[in-house]
Amino acid sequence: MGLTQGEYVFFAVExxxxxYWGRLNYIAEDKEDNNARQAFQSLFVISLxxxxxxxxxxxxxxxxxxxxxxxxxxxxQVLEKPDPVVMSFYESIMIYAQEVASMTEAGEDFRNGSAMxxxxxxxxxxxxTGYLSFGNVGDRDRxxxxxxxxxxxxxxxxxxxxxxxSGTQNHTFLQVDDTLxxxxxxxxxxxxxxxxFRNDECKDDGRIPRGLLAVVVVIPLxxxxxxxxxxxxxxxxxxxxxxxxxxxxxKILMDDLTVKQNRTASGNMSKKTLV
Length: 275
Fold this sequence. Notes:
The chain is α+β, with helices and mostly antiparallel strands. Helices cover 31% and strands 19% of the residues. It has helices at 33-39, 58-72, 84-105, 113-120, 210-243, and strands spanning 10-13, 43-48, 124-127, 130-134, 140-141, 144-150, 155-164, 171-175, 259-263, 270-274. Strands 1-2-6-7-8 form a five-stranded mixed sheet, with no helix packed on it. A three-stranded antiparallel sheet has the order 3-4-5, with helices on one face. It is elongated, with a radius of gyration of 44 Å.
């Protein structure tokens, strides 16, 4: 379809670099693997940044591995990290417990959900995965990584880091890979079509649009060719008719007459019949 030559950008989301979460891979063990490898250059992958600054407590890690094996029959590999979702649940409980203790100490009712949410917004916590911050709408602020595909090694590599500075509302943008785009001399495709998504942003310079100009020129030419073809066909037909025309078609010539003599068996009389 020609959509992976550098004129279009595609995005995919890979939340975590864990096999059971699903990994993006161009290999399908068929003849299209090489084409897919080249096409992956047009694909950017967005994933959550690994921002852990604290080492995971060994007792907690052991408990997670033990419960995963006993309850879910899942065994962690030697260097495999605990699932980020499990870590998020743990941190949520710890933040809740911390707020319950703080509100109780301050003489507030921790059963007041609105009051607790108001305390959590625009604050930071230190968890087992690093710093946790919540925005003014209650959503957790997370740092993101943008990865581009390296066709030489066949893997996605970090290209840009997006994040927020701790203790501030300022966001950072760090481009790690100098060669971000593989085509057009490294220049990214435009964010929108030249004349906008509705084709209403191009200035009218008084010229006839190309599409309308093509219609105006092509349709008369087609009509002219059709008329010329019809005229040639009519002339050839008329010529053939004149060639085959006989003005004496109504006359009967003597050569067209056949004389037959019929004799009877009983006599010598004969008569002539014109046929």
